[in-house]
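Hi W.,

Here's what went into the run:
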Amino acid sequence: MRALQEMILQEGRVLPNNILQVDQFLNHQVDTLLMEQVGIEFAKRFAEENVTKVLTLEASGIVPANMTALKLGVPLIIAKKSKSLTLAHALFTADVHSYTKRETSNIAVAENAIHIEDRILIIDDFLANGEATKGLLTIIEKAGATTVGVGIVIEKSFQPGRQWLDENGIRVESLARISSLQGGTVAFVKESALIEE
Amino acid sequence: MRALQEMILQEGRVLPNNILQVDQFLNHQVDTLLMEQVGIEFAKRFAEENVTKVLTLEASGIVPANMTALKLGVPLIIAKKSKSLTLAHALFTADVHSYTKRETSNIAVAENAIHIEDRILIIDDFLANGEATKGLLTIIEKAGATTVGVGIVIEKSFQPGRQWLDENGIRVESLARISSLQGGTVAFVKESALIEE
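Here's what came out:
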């Protein structure tokens, strides 16, 4: 998605340990008009899939997931990172390990939020090691529902998450695919390259 | 806002300790079309205020704040509850005490996200004791920016947050004002009552 790639080149900052900081338009200050375009794009790509619900994990995936669900005209489910006081007692849960935060957290979705006939689209801001996505897939599996695919705003294609999803036959649509952050420079995967390396 | 009040009566569950569970349409499963209407309503009420940015606190305020910012055509700023690895180093911070979670957390906004000329609209899902709102007001004050008002999806008018904001001359627009949850029944403040008590 060209506008997204341009924004990454313009506003993204490469930090140590292969972290791409996108706090100017995605994770902290949010460009709401760009995120509407992101939602429109995901809704278009998954238009034939009869999606019944969009699923994401709090907190940084919420905005693109919200826009996608709105454009598809379906509810959004926000998986919670810890048991909230007001969350229903019957829960589907999964463990998610964060390499950046070096901790494993338990994520949860209320059992009455996902049903066996649901066709779920997972949306997240980043795909790196794929741990968050695997946790969401586990929850969908426990609910007996169908995963129609995964929509990712920014994919770090040099980390193992994408390959794992491909090998497991799960459709992935990433709006920006980054092949490398080496030397502090953002390089995109060539198939979707805005600027050829 | 009539559609919101109807949804609260239909789907809200009153739990012990004056907790109103709205996991069916606001906090966990999100009714994205209703939240679009919420955004349109806030944008209408604050249309004359020349809002430059919408500010909220992660995670449950993000959806209504995102919809409001989109409808106003301005960026959204999501205050973070803990220092994120990828957040900028120069931060405006404030302490926020949660009565339900019985903990005080530090919230932060990057200094480069709010400028002195900004006119900020705070949006949150709930107003009860007002602690989260006070923390966001502190951050806006530290940045030297202007608070144009506070938009709340569900106000618990029987708790002290609303009165504190009124006494401090801060404009508050709440789409549903709840006067009581006693006996497990939702009662609305009469000025906006859908069903008269």
